[in-house]
Amino acid sequence: MQHDMPKKRQQRRVPDADLAADDAGLMASIAKGDVLAFEKLYKQYGPRLTAFLRRFTAHPHLIDEIINDTMLVVWQKAHTYNQTCKVSTWVFSIAYRQGLKALRSLRQKTEILVDEDELSDMPEPEQQMNHLQMRKLLENALGELSLEQRNVIALTYYHGMAYDEIAHTMRCPVNTIKTRMFHARRKLRSLLHAYQ
Q1: Model confidence over 141-158: pLDDT tens digits?
Q2: Left, alpha or beta for 122 (phi > 0: left; psi -120 to 50: alpha)?
């Protein structure tokens, strides 16, 4: 019976803490030039960065380019990661800057895309149409926000980041993030009300 105790304690460990420790270990290995650790980190972050960057631009080739640029910086600068933030915050911060750089170079308007994969789970065509219409309204409303406001919304609701992590990612004070979120929510509320 006593041998079961450590197993129960292990099961109670926080998955986020384990993931953060694993990420930090990968970064330490990458800093030493470990290609396999880099590949593992790339596989872990590729889908998350893709989802985040889809809210920057609608051009898939640009998303792939930004991710590649981001991961190149991760590879080259891994030795500078100092554990003052989560690895995910550090990587998203790089992706954010690379995304802005790519958008500036193309001088294009940014837009937030709706992930229509969710529609496949809905059984009724009428429900699918209602869902699609609501998502389209939301997409239109989000398109009216500034880039900074859209990024705060995306990082909060789609990537589960806390305000302090977003502030680190966007390199601005936490109060600025709170203000952007306040104005974004208020504008979204009024736009969605106007659209209906």
Answers
A1: 788 888 888 888 888 877
A2: beta
